[in-house]
Amino acid sequence: MAPFDPVSAAIGGALIGLAATLLMLLAGRIAGISGILGDLVDLATGDRPWRLAFVAGLIAAPLVLAAGGHGLRAPAMPGWGIVVVAGLLVGFGTRLGSGCTSGHGICGIARFSPRSVAATLTFMIVAMLAVAIMRHAL
Amino acid sequence: MRIFSAFLCGLIFGLGLVISGMTDTAKVLGFLDVLAIPKGTWDPTLLIVMAAALVVSTPGLLLAKRRLRPLFADAAAWPMRSAIDRPLLAGAALFGAGWGLVGLCPGPAIANLATLSPLVLLFVAAMIAGMAAHDVWRRGTAWGLDTTVAADG
Hints:
- The structure holds two protein chains of two kinds.
- The model of chain A has no long low-confidence stretch (mean pLDDT 94).
- By secondary structure, chain A is an all-alpha fold.
- Chain A has helices at residues 6-27, 33-41, 49-67, 80-96, 101-110, 114-137.
- Chain A contains six helices and no strands.
- Chain A is globular.
- The two termini of chain A are 22 Å apart.
- Chain A has a domain at 77-138.
- By secondary structure, chain B is mostly helical.
- In chain B, 61% of the residues lie in helices and 0% in strands.
- Chain B has helices at 2-20, 25-32, 45-66, 86-102, 106-111, 118-139.
- The interface between A and B is large, with 118 and 127 residues.
């Protein structure tokens, strides 16, 4: 794991907040990644081009940084069984709960939405429990 | 312009994720591992990232709300729901469980596709399958015309 770097964390966080602000100011949309991706792959939803463009930008970002010498490192991942279960849970859960870390955690809390605060507290606490069980109980 | 601005926002968002370290599953799990706090090995990065994002997005979205309409769209799509209901909490709990298992939420998962890691590809494929499964379950068909109110995010 890379060492704790509060300056990079703050700069990166500010960029995320800036992106959320600009997406609403320019395109009139909430920067919720699960919503953007979910509606992109949902056959019943229209209005796809901007969603595709956002996702393309998201994938392009590490490549831009890699071109600047930042390095492109694949993240540490558990075995494929856990990966599949976790992916299904994240996909199903973010659709059922109408949002994820970005939509609820950043945009929702910024709008002082009690709904998003409740969702964020819930997924944070459950994620912490999951890590506690995976790392310390098993 | 709307499509270009969406690309630009995705790019800035992704740069923020990578620079802050949030595409690194070890750092995310290092934050979620609260039992590491007493040991002194806890990683507070995610907390700082979220706080910094909110410092910008709170006044930013307030400003956006005061404007009549977005620059490149006819109308702004603000989330309209306010009820703290069972789908919200059950969905958040399921998401949290998956997030804690791997350390990837949707944004970092998509950005990490750039690494071409087979396990990240598998995660994203499973995530999309989970989303589709939800949509099918919710309305009986993936092709239904039920366009419910805008999601929170």
